[in-house]
Amino acid sequence: xxxxxxxxxxxxxxxxxxxxxxxxxxxxxxxxxxxxxxxxxxxxxxxxxxxxxxxxxxxxxxxxxxxxxxxxxxxxxxxxxxxxxxxxxxxxxxxxxxxxxxxxxxxxxxxxxxxxxxxxxxxxxxxxxxxxxxxxxxxxxxxx
Length: 144
Description:
Elements: E1 26-35, E2 46-51, E3 56-61, E4 67-70, E5 78-79, E6 85-90, E7 107-113, E8 117-125, E9 128-135, E10 138-143
Antiparallel strand pairs: 1-2, 1-6, 2-3, 3-4, 5-6, 7-8, 8-9, 9-10
């Protein structure tokens, strides 16, 4: 058995390196949201960054609280009956990525924990940063 890298989750493996995003323009961002009745939707469950090369990079959390970064197509929304539904839509102003649409990604930086692998990803633009992190199993996005 090969040794696991510091940023590799024991359950989800290492995923995709986000380095391919550097020097690409952030063209679109989609997110999935849990909606229950008329309640305000909670923070995004998943975020898909679509760059100028049409590469789709998904950022989400794993069942073991790691941060997953991979290249997978956006999911379809679905109904969960009495528990509400999950909607997938283009972001408007709901995430810090909204203010960076059309900008070039200058750098990416990852943080990891030896037990769970990747825990955070920072995406840097000329006008600021967006931090994606797993916090108690939830995806948290913040402006930096």
